[in-house]
Amino acid sequence: GWQSHGVRAGVVTHSKPSASGHLIFHGSAYARGVHVAELLAATLDDAHAAEWVDKLLEIRSARWPGRATSAPWGTRVCEDLSLQVFDAPWPVSDREMLMRRRVLVTAANRTVRIAFEPAVGAEALGFPVGKGRVRADAFSEFEFVASATELGTRVALVGLVNPKGSLPTALINVLNRDWAANTISGLLRHARRATRLPGPVAQGACKGVDVSTWGGRAAPADVVRGGGGGGGVGGGTAAWLGALARAWLPAAPESRSEL
Fold first, then answer.
1. 21-76 pLDDT tens trace
2. Which of 17, 22, 31, 228 has the most CB atoms around it within 10 Å of its CB?
3. Are the CB atoms for 44 and 59 separated by under 8 Å?
4. In the chain, what are the helix, strand and coil shares in percent, each to the nearest 5?
């Protein structure tokens, strides 16, 4: 089952032990005063991602020609390729992940999901493995659910990472305990810097997507909103890894924390 790490940086965190040396983690919180449009804008802003994604060194995105995906009726889907490079302490090699990033927007239940999975077959599109790095595999997902009664969003992050090589047990324990909490708290700090409520996405695969009218107290995009802010959870390169992701990720625990 899930092991609780309590509340870290205002985020409820859990992890799962793995005999195979994988990272399996979950974090969640309720962000009062943060609009789902601010969170979507922040997560699609690759230029500033390293400011809030824990240990991220570099991120690059590109179109994925010819790819299509199915989704339930009423869900808008946009997708691209995302290469992300993460710092690891010496002598461990930095890890990079070439992933398919899918954004699923469902207005009926005011939910945005940003899902990452290994981009199988995309290596030939100009993403060679960086010198001195190891290309790992990861399944992860952000879920943002806008409140129907007030300005607030439930935020969850769950992930399974195969580092493609052994990591020190102490490092695995620290990442399982801290990475989701640091990333969620960093995302909320970044989102709260917005002085205007974002309108439709202006560029990239999700151009035109607009969630600014969601929530109990949504404001139009041209109204200045005060900065600052006070204050659960919804294949791959190997069949077994895909099975693990499908079996474990939906079973993550619920959150009662508020940020």
1. 999 999 999 999 999 999 999 999 999 999 999 999 999 988 876 555 666 667 88
2. 31
3. no
4. 20, 35, 45
d(CA 105, CA 115): 11
For the record, the structure tokens of 113 come out as: 């999901």
Q: Residue 159 half-sphere exposure, CB side, CA atoms within 13 Å?
A: 28
Q: How far is CA 236 from CA 32, 70, 111, 137, 258, in A?
A: 35, 17, 24, 8, 33
Instruction: Please write the tens of the pLDDT for every residue from 140-170.
Output: 999 999 999 999 999 999 999 999 999 999 9
CB 86 within 8 A of CB 56: yes
**Cβ atoms 87, 131 nearer than 8 A:** no
On the CB side of 13, CA atoms within 13 Å amount to 23
Determine the 3-state secondary structure of 251 from DSSP: helix
In degrees and rounded to multiples of 5, residue 176 shows phi and psi of: -60, -35
CB atoms closer than 10 angstroms to residue 251: 12
pTM: 0.84
- How would you classify the pairing of strands 133-135 and 94-106? parallel
**For residues 45 and 193, is the Cβ–Cβ distance under 8 A?**
no
The two tokens of residue 78 are 């946009």
Interacting residues of 60 by C-beta distance below 8 A, sequence separation 6+: 46, 82, 83, 127
d(C-alpha 123, C-alpha 100), whole Å: 11
- DSSP label of 152: E
